[in-house]
Amino acid sequence: NMREYVEVELTEPLEADKCYYLEFFVNMPNDHTYACDGVGAYVSQGVITGTNANPLTVVPQVKNPAGNLIADTLSWTKVSGYFTAVGGENYITIGNFRDDANTNWTQIHQNVWYETSAYLYIDDVTLQLHEWKVELGSDTTLCENEMIELDAEKLDATSYEWENGSSQPTRTVSSAGGYWVEVRLDGCKASDTVLVDIEPMPSLDLGDDIKLCDEQEIILRANTNLGAVVWSDGSSDSILVTNESGVYWAEVSNQCGTIYDTVTVEMEECVCYVYIPNAFTPNGDETNDAFSIGYNCNFASFDFRIFDRWGKIIFKTNEPDFAWSGKNVPIGKYTYQLQYSSKEIFTGKGMKIGSVRIIR
Q1: Quick one: DSSP state of residue 70?
Q2: What would the DSSP string read from start to end of 334-359?
Q3: For residue 338, which phi and psi values (nearest 5 degrees)?
Q4: Which pairs from 282-285 meet CB under 8 Å and 24+ separation?
Q5: What pLDDT is recorded for position 345?
Q6: At a CB cut-off of 8 Å and minimum separation 6, what does 149 contact?
Q7: Distances (CA, A) of 295 to 118, 150, 298
Q8: Taking Cα atoms as reference points, which of 2, 3, 187, 186 lies closest to residue 93?
Q9: Nearest Cα to 352, choosing from 298, 302, 309, 312?
Q10: DSSP states of 286-316 as a string?
Q11: What DSSP letter does each residue of 267-278 carry, written as one string?
Q12: Looking at residue 324, what DSSP letter applies?
């Protein structure tokens, strides 16, 4: 268990959390009996010493692998590795930090001068800063069904660890999220994170073609997963109001593409007439006390709604022969909307929008 070490002060202290590469070369002399695997280098803050000749009780940052016997007397064997500095280390010590029980050895020479020891020559010691970082690239946005390969591969890397447990140098992703990787090089490590967002493919539906009675208005709605819509008249609202025949189109686009849709509006003379009064007087005199409509249609569908000034529905019905009393409703003007279609003489969709006043 007797040990000798070589120790020297560094030209400058090491920087905290920086990666360093340490390298030195060893050679077995011809005049010693044994070859062993015990040699390493320890970088310390200040001088390290011992009170006896036994092994120093520190763990070297760089060491020759156990079982790798250094028996070459002609060439030099390189011992090297990477480590992360604590900061302030200013001395390097080289020697065997293992005791005899943990040192592998074998007899190489016989009848030489030093018959009971293993010894090594040491030369060309290098300790230098090593720039060790990994870059996954900038945050990115993918279109639906697209994939991207995240590449963390580094020369001489000893291990990879992704946030999902993968240990491969590359990773293919196709969903939104934050992806990180930690890459190790012996005692050094570097990490990076990239954010991936997913942009949806645009979709657009203007609905079925529409037939309207003359002078009716229709609200064309752009059902889309995006916000920005461009109509054929150049407007960009989510709806388009018209009372004219024609082919209307709209488009939506994003970085993943552009999509169009069209709808045909056809005006025709209809014999399905609906009369809606604009006022009634629910004052209990049995004259014009309820609000109702007149019509000569055989309705296939009927949806009538009344809204207050804030857009809240205060009355709705699917029965054409309704009578609304306006009970508990303040006097004033209210907006109505009627959507309907006829079974016989009008096969399209009709809409009426207007107002009715309550007078007491």
Answers
A1: B
A2: EEEEEEEEESSS--S-EEEEEEEEE-
A3: -120, 125
A4: 282/325, 282/326, 282/327, 282/358, 282/360, 283/360
A5: 46
A6: 170, 171, 172
A7: 114, 67, 9
A8: 3
A9: 302
A10: SSS-SB--EE---EEEEEEEEE-TTS-EEEE
A11: EE--S--EE--S
A12: B
Q: Which two tokens stand for residue 277?
A: 């009064």
Successive 10-residue mean pLDDT values, the chain, 360 residues: 94 96 96 93 95 93 96 95 96 96 92 86 96 93 93 92 96 95 95 95 91 76 88 90 90 91 83 86 87 88 93 94 90 93 64 90
- Express each pLDDT in 181-217 by its tens digit: 999 999 999 999 999 999 999 999 999 998 776 667 7
Report the distance separating Cα 166 and Cα 181, nearest Å: 9
Give one DSSP letter per residue of 91-150, joined into a string. EEEEE--S-GGG--EEE--SS-SEEEEE--EEEEEEEEE--------S-EEEETT--EEE
- Within 8 A by CB and 6+ apart from 308, the residues are 314, 334
**Whether the Cβ atoms of residue 17 and residue 84 lie closer than 8 Å to each other:** yes
Residue written as token pair 């990879």: 160
Measured between alpha carbons, how far is 88 from 44 in angstroms, rounded to an integer?
Answer: 8
In sequence order, what DSSP letters do the residues of 136-202 get, joined into one string?
Answer: --S-EEEETT--EEEE---TT--EEEETTS--SSEEEE-S-EEEEEEEEETBEEEEEEEEEEEEPPP
Between CA 351 and CA 239 the distance in angstroms is: 15
Distance CA 307, CA 305 (A): 7
Backbone angles phi, psi at 342, to 5 degrees: -110, 145
d(CA 35, CA 325): 109
Q: Which amino acid, residue 90?
A: N
